[in-house]
Amino acid sequence: MPATTDSNLEIAKRANDEARADFATWLMMAKLNSIDALPQEAQAFFAGYRALLAQNKVAESAAADTTIRIVYRSYYARLGGTGTPPDIKSAPRTRQMPDNNDNVTPFRKIKPSAPPPREKKKLPVALIFIGLIVLAVAWHYLSRGAL
Fold first, then answer.
1. What is the domain count for the chain?
2. Would you say residue 134 lies in a domain?
3. C-alpha 79: how far from its chain's center?
4. Is 14 within 8 Å of 88 (Cβ atoms)?
5. Is residue 145 part of a domain?
6. Spatial CA neighbour of 49 closest among 67, 32, 62, 31
7. What does the pLDDT read at residue 122?
8. Residue 30's CB: how many other CB atoms inside 10 A?
9. Distance from C-alpha of 29 to C-alpha of 31, rounded to nearest angstrom
10. Residue 129: how many CA atoms within 13 Å on its side-chain side?
11. Residue-number span of the structural domain to which 65 is assigned
12. For residue 70, what are the contacts with CB-CB under 8 A and spacing of at least 6?
């Protein structure tokens, strides 16, 4: 069976998406100092990422891409892909957020351009109740005279 069948491409896309999402989760957990909560396999992958960073020959983005490719191959095999995993084009990179906290925009209340429409005035409950009593009494007297 060739490695580029439709089912293998779907498996490859799913494995690639899972690998990228899991790696982003691992990075966030590392920032929160909770890597120990990850499964052993994930800890091993992340340790490999840290080893690549420790070599100082590899940039952070290159180490991340290498680790994601390794995780992708593992997930591809685990999901039942056959043969060598096909190369999946990654989505364009988003711009990195600065480390400082100046990226927070203060909330500004937007003023409405026109005043909101007024609600119709509702009849008070007591007035409605009195009207029902008057109708009941009138019905009582009118129905007696007709008989």
1. 1
2. no
3. 23
4. no
5. no
6. 67
7. 72
8. 14
9. 5
10. 3
11. 6-78
12. 45, 48
Q: How do residues 106-129 score in pLDDT, each as one tens digit? A: 777 777 777 767 777 776 888 889
Strand, helix or coil for residue 3: coil
Q: What gap in Å lies between CA 141 and CA 135, rounded to an integer?
A: 10
Q: Structure tokens of 71?
A: 């995780």
The predicted-structure confidence for 18-28, as pLDDT tens digits, reads as follows 889 989 888 88
Task: Quote the CA–CA distance of 13 and 85 in Å, as a whole number.
Answer: 10
Nearest CA-CA partner of 19 in 102, 82, 88: 88
Q: What is the largest CA-CA distance in the chain?
A: 108
136 pLDDT exceeds 90? yes
Average pLDDT over the chain, rounded to whole? 80
Distance from C-alpha of 130 to C-alpha of 108, rounded to nearest angstrom: 49
The answer to whether residue 93 is domain-embedded is no
pTM attached to this predicted model: 0.56
Angle formed by the axes of helices 60-78 and 40-54, to 10°? Answer: 150
CB 60 within 8 A of CB 79: no
Mean pLDDT of 48-68: 83
